[in-house]
Write a structure and sequence with these properties.
It is built from twelve helices and twelve strands. It is α/β, with parallel strands linked by helices and about 350 residues long. Strands 10-9-8-11-12 form a five-stranded parallel sheet. Strand 8, helix 6 and strand 9 form a beta-alpha-beta unit. The longest helix has 20 residues. The chain is globular and about 55 Å long.
């Protein structure tokens, strides 16, 4: 049974209301319980509050248990499809999204640079409108954050960031899941970032304060985090009561921390700068000595792909302290959590982890 009420169609039998406004993603205005993220875009953790991030992580943990441990066949997204736009290649983003959507019962369509030229042969606005009519959700791995924002402006289906030069929110969800699994909670952890002030650390800055984690950041001169991102992070830190420190000294950054994190020094599109960057990052390699300066139980993280100048083999392949493979696997469970929650309301079956 349904009635018109205040310009909205109310489905009384399930207690839901859906806006009839055109040119917008359909959004639920009354919830049946749990966290409702249906129709939201996922472009940056800046747009998500603590409870929403925790719900995505809870979903990821729940799905990992259901599929990996319990061997369940659970296909809530049968008949759904995702378009995957890749301006930049990626092993983990492509594999995690394709295999994750398949497990959920849906279908993934890969669109590489030879398949779609955003803003070149067709405007971003037109691409968004076409994709919206043929798929249920779009993941875009692009250079400019503005491209994601333009797609989301005109899309009537959720847009998920697979990475941009500014943010990499899917990676940070996987990192948070890995930290929760290893330490049993997130609140109170102290993280150290050693390396480039890039999209990955930008996403840590948007997420760590909301979940009660402190963050130290060591970057060489000329490779600082974006000033606007830093400004936003300072606001979040003040609101949360956490701490955030910036330094040029990697040893100072890692001192007494629980987690040491680095990333590639030469991202895609920066290959021409490789010699200069390797020189500028001298002293930033994560070594056994650097890990010894961290806390006695500190772990090492890297989102991959890894190059030897960034971290020694001794640290990278340390089975006790390096969690890079668990971190990589969790890319799958977290992107599944995002896709599922943006397409339908999901209440996990298993108890909520401690955050």
């Amino acid at each position: 049974m349904s009635i018109m009420q205040g310009g909205k169609l109310c489905l009384l039998q399930v207690g839901k209301c859906f806006s009839l406004a055109s040119n917008t993603v359909i959004k639920r205005c009354a919830s049946t319980g749990g966290t409702d993220l249906i129709g939201r875009h996922f472009l940056t953790l800046k747009d998500y509050n603590q409870s929403e991030i925790e719900h995505l992580l809870w979903t990821a943990s729940d799905l990992k248990t259901r599929y990996k441990e319990n061997k369940e066949v659970f296909q809530p997204l049968i008949g759904k499809s995702i378009a995957m736009i890749f301006q930049k290649r990626s092993t983990r983003t492509r594999l995690s999204t394709e295999t994750g959507m398949s497990l959920l019962g849906g279908h993934a369509v890969f669109l590489g640079p030879d398949d779609i030229h955003l803003g070149v042969n067709e405007s971003l606005q037109d691409s968004a409108k076409v994709l919206s009519r043929m798929t249920d959700v779009v993941l875009a791995r692009v250079y400019g954050q503005s491209d994601l924002e333009e797609l989301s402006k005109y899309s009537t289906v959720p847009i998920i960031s697979g990475l941009s030069d500014m943010y990499h929110p899917l990676q940070i969800l996987a990192d948070f899941q890995t930290l929760q699994e290893h330490f049993g909670q997130l609140k109170g952890l102290k993280l150290a970032w050693v390396g480039d002030g890039n999209n990955v650390v930008h996403s840590f800055l948007m997420g760590c304060p909301k979940l009660g984690m402190d963050l130290n950041i060591a970057t060489p001169k000329g490779y600082d985090v974006d000033p606007k991102v830093k400004e936003d992070a300072v606001t979040l830190v003040k609101q949360s009561g956490t701490s955030m420190n910036f330094t040029r000294d990697p040893m100072e950054a890692v001192a007494g921390t629980d987690v040491v994190i680095t990333d590639t020094w030469i991202s895609m599109g920066q290959e021409a700068e490789s010699k200069k960057r390797i020189k500028d990052f001298m002293g930033y390699e994560v070594t056994k000595e650097m890990m010894a300066a961290a806390g006695p139980h500190a772990i090492f993280m890297h989102c991959l792909p890894r190059h030897k100048e960034e971290v020694s083999d001794e640290v990278f392949y340390d089975e006790k302290r390096s969690v890079v493979w668990q971190e990589a696997e969790n890319r799958k469970w977290t992107v599944m959590a995002v896709m599922l929650n943006l397409l339908q309301q999901y209440m996990p079956l298993h108890p909520k982890p401690t955050f």
